[in-house]
Amino acid sequence: MKASGLSRINRGFGSLRGRSAPPRGFSLLHVSALSVLLILMAGCVTEYSGGTQMSSDPGAKVDKRVVFARQYIGVGDWENAKRNLELAQEVDPNNAEIFEAFALAYQSTGEFEMAENQFRAAFKAEPTLSRAGNNYAAFLYSQGRYIEAKREFYRVTEDTLYSGRPMAFVNLGLCRLQLADDAGAEAAFTRALSIDRRNPVALLEMGFLRLEAGDTNEAARYHGTYRTVSPQQ
């Protein structure tokens, strides 16, 4: 590649780092927030009063209360979220989905010890709940506990039926970056892209890694694909 081409790549990547792309230390927090939002109900949130029609089936009633709670978590209404979860727990006191939703609510309000206790309760109730595993790993990352987070993210990526597996690989890669394991991070981002070729975080980080390795052609390719995926950037 000509020197002018490399200069353009460097300017472009520098611009992305400075204005639009999150720094590596922030990326997972951003991704974690997205991973939480992805499990919430889309659209406007309706406030459900005590007169809301609820199914007579206990399982359906619990599911609806958890859905309501996730809606409230999505808009930052922690009190109504917890109220619905408490009502759900009265029906099913050992439900992993309820424990995990409580953990997200407590994490969001800075009650970290309670959040971790709820995550652990969720795993005890349902050890294979991969979404809870991904969110717990993101929680560990936010606490700077990168080695533990890496272990949890890796465990989640082994669940081949988990719909959020591509983002779990991205999260694993971001965690490995924090541990100065660029080779391991690149392997994780490559796996993410093998499942989801248009994942913007994986594309962006692969571009950075290839640029740092001196492979400007591959850096330009990843950067170009990233720009087609995220044209607003």
List keywords for this structure.
233 residues; 12 helices; 73% helix; single chain; 2 domains
Helices and strands, with pairings:
Layout: H1 3-20, H2 24-37, H3 58-74, H4 78-91, H5 96-108, H6 112-125, H7 130-142, H8 146-157, H9 165-178, H10 182-195, H11 200-212, H12 216-229
User: CATH superfamily of the largest domain, called what?
Assistant: Tetratricopeptide repeat domain
| Helix-strand string | HHHHHHHHHHHH
Low-confidence parts, pLDDT < 50 over ≥5 residues? 1-12, 14-54
Overall pLDDT score:
82
- Global outline: elongated
Q: How many helix segments?
A: 12
**End-to-end distance, in Å?**
24 Å
Describe this structure in words.
With 233 residues, this protein is mainly α. It folds into two domains: 1-25 and 133-233, Serine Threonine Protein Phosphatase 5, Tetratricopeptide repeat; 55-127, Serine Threonine Protein Phosphatase 5, Tetratricopeptide repeat (Alpha Horseshoe). Helix content is 73%, strand content 0%. The longest helix is centred in the N-terminal third of the chain and has 18 residues, at 3-20. Mean pLDDT is 82; it is low at 1-12 and 14-54.
